[in-house]
Amino acid sequence: MALSIEDIKKVAHLARIEVSDTDAAATLTKLTGILGLIEQMQAVDTTGIEPMSHSQDLSQRLRDDVITKTNLRDEFQKNAPLLGNGSTEQAVSGGLYLVPKVIE
Amino acid sequence: MINSSLKQFGEMLHTKKISSVELTQSFLSRIQQYNPTINAYIALDEAKTLAQAKAADSRIAAGNAAPLTGIPIAQKDIFCAKGWQTTCGSKMLANFIAPYDAYVITQFDAVGAVNLGKTNMDEFAMGSSNETSYFGGVKNPWDFDRVPGGSSGGSAAAVAARLCAAATGTDTGGSIRQPASLCGFTGLKPTYGVVSRYGMIAFASSLDQAGPMAKSAEDCALMMNVMAGFDERDSTSLNREKEDYTRSLNQPLAGLKIGLPKEFFAEGLDASVGKVIEDAIAEYKKLGADIVEISLPNTGLSIPVYYVLAPAEASSNLSRYDGVRYGHRAESYTDLMDMYCKSRAEGFGAEVKRRILIGTYVLSAGYYDAYYLKAQQIRRLIAQDFVEAFKQCDVIMGPAAPSTAFKAGEKVDDPVAMYLQDIYTISTNLAGLPGMSVPAGFSNGLPVGLQIIGNYFDEARMLNVAHQYQQVTNWHSKMPELVLPKEVK
Fold first, then answer.
1. pLDDT at residue B80 above 80?
2. Fold (CATH) for B6-257
3. What does the pLDDT average to over B384-396?
4. CA B190, B79, B235 angle in degrees (round to 5)?
5. Cβ pair A16:B340 closer than 8 A
6. How far apart are the C-alpha atoms of B184 and B437, rounded to whole Å?
7. Within 13 Å and on the Cβ side, how many CA atoms surround B70?
8. Is A82 on the interface with B (CB under 8 A)?
9. Which residues span the domain enclosing A85?
10. Nearest CA to CA, how far is A81 from chain B (Å)?
11. What is the 3-state secondary structure (H, E, C) of B202-223?
12. What 8-state DSSP symbol labels residue B114?
């Protein structure tokens, strides 16, 4: 089925990626080509075939509910991005990450 | 000396003919000379590297060296290495300093190997030419106008140009084997679950698998002895007994049944590549192997299936890059939504964005059954093809890539043409099987790789099959003559 510019914009919004109108048009051409490739699947009769998500058909292991990790918060926060909007400070404060105000 | 095997490097170190510091420095000086042109490495840290080499020398002096102690290894920049810039080839992670070590890094550290640096790669391992890297393309050491393949293009060029003793790579759809073919060395993608993915930046988690990239099968076996093992921190790591991958290298091949899938020799294969593969098969006949014609009827579907499943998994895995805790955050934004959308638009390159969009689309309401579920069903058909094939043969052989290295820029605007590079490698990722590429000759001066596919957990057998071939051929020891372009004044 044919994709439209609106589809691209909708999917881009779902994926939280900003697209300009020019980008959306270019993306539409490329994605249409890729979906054309994917479309070959529809010719295959897969009635009754169990979907395969793991090559060994294994399910996830369970582990004992014990603490195994040490607290690396300070270490991790060294990688915090800068606040943006001209600030030279990292987007952290008192061990928390700073984001724009969400609740008025 | 730089063309020595890992075993020979080990002997030189253990008999103190050379120190690890000296060996490491000789690689570092080659890197200094050639990397500005080839661009195989993204990050180098001489102080860290030489400190490891010094420690290795003390360990050797103390008499408790392991086979790879003191040997300089290049690490694909997809592996987190504590204190090292770890970018995954993306602007998104350009300033990311890994706060912990990947399993693979820990394993090499434990045996006292030396981390020579982090190698260039397609952004988030999405590509077959290394041209999607934020840090620029990598030159194929056999011809600087051509690509090294991808996504492990930096590791590939580093191994081929002898800018490391060996390297690590990862393979989601062919990212070890296709560059091994295009750059002329030996690369192995193990059975899914054999090497822990802990600390390896995720692309498509049900397909991603790390493996060795080295000159010979013997070198790959020594690397596998370090890399393979059970790790609780990867929920898909397989709990199996440790094995010695060198154990059967010297077994004769008489009676070996080699399956040749007719789909691997059909339309789309460059004729001169096909000729090299036929010659390699003839060599195997001389070694006593029997040839069986087999069929993998769903081979053609592996690409469509992969381009549903891999982007679907990627769209989910890459949702973590939101500009909040690490990675790129947009310089200016109005609110939280704007911050997410701008940070991701700026931080990801075009191919990564395309795959995120494809993945988001195939997983979105109304399309899940038609795309994602359908692809998972066909994935089982592809895996079953191999189950049937291995009833008739011990290993499967064919080309690793449909052509030799192509020119930089040639396929960059045509994603579908680029995706077809992996036509012979993707099906093994979908099935979770191990696959290798082994140097088998040249076409117009460019290397061609023979692919060997084994049954689950048959890596030692495959390494044996490759090693025996390397005892009677010398394609794996050929190295390119590196002629640096003259400075334009």
1. yes
2. Amidase signature (AS) enzymes (3.90.1300)
3. 98
4. 60
5. yes
6. 9
7. 32
8. yes
9. 71-104
10. 6
11. CCCCCCCCEEEEECCHHHHHHH
12. E
Residue A28 sits at the chain B interface (C-beta within 8 Å): no
pLDDT of residue B313: 97
- The count of domains in chain A is 2
| Pair B297, B467: CB distance under 8 Å | no
CB B203 within 8 A of CB B317: yes
At residue B43, φ and ψ (nearest 5 deg) are -130, 130
Computed over its alpha carbons, how large is the radius of gyration of chain B?
21
For residues B29-56, average pLDDT: 98
Q: Which of A6, A16, A66 to mutate to test the interface with B (most CBs of B within 10 A)?
A: A16
- pTM value surpassing 0.80: yes
Does residue A60 lie within any of the structural domains? no
**Other C-beta atoms within 10 Å of B483: how many?**
8
Contact between chains at B324 and A37 (C-beta distance less than 8 A)? no
Q: Tell me, what's the ipTM?
A: 0.95
Closest Cβ–Cβ partner in B333, B345, B373 for A17: B345
CATH number of the domain encompassing residue A25: 1.10.20
| Residues of B involved in catalysis | 76, 151, 175
Residue predicted with more confidence, B27 or B367: B27
Q: Alpha carbon B383 to chain centroid distance? A: 21
Q: Where are the domains of chain B?
A: 6-257
Distance between A84 CA and the closest CA of chain B, angstroms = 4
Report the pLDDT value the prediction gives residue A69, as an integer from 0 to 100. 82
Tell me whether residues A97 and B236 touch, CB distance under 8 A.
Answer: no
| Test the A interface: residue of B126, B236, B305, B361 with most A CBs within 10 Å | B361
Q: For B123, which DSSP code?
A: G
Q: A24 touching B, CB under 8 A?
A: no
CA dist., res. B269 & res. B284, Å (int): 21
Q: How far is CA B92 from CA B87, B321, B484, in A?
A: 8, 8, 32
Q: Are strands B435-443 and B446-454 parallel, antiparallel or unpaired?
A: antiparallel
Tell me the nearest-neighbour CA distance from B339 into chain A, angstroms.
8
Considering only CA atoms, which of B370, B311, B376 is closest in space to residue A43?
Answer: B370
Enumerate the residues of chain B whose CB falls inside 8 A of the CB of residue A84. 329-333, 339
Taking the C-alpha atoms of residue B195 and residue B197, their distance in angstroms, rounded to an integer, is 6
Judge contact between B399 and B180, C-beta under 8 A: no
What is the reported pLDDT for A85?
Answer: 83
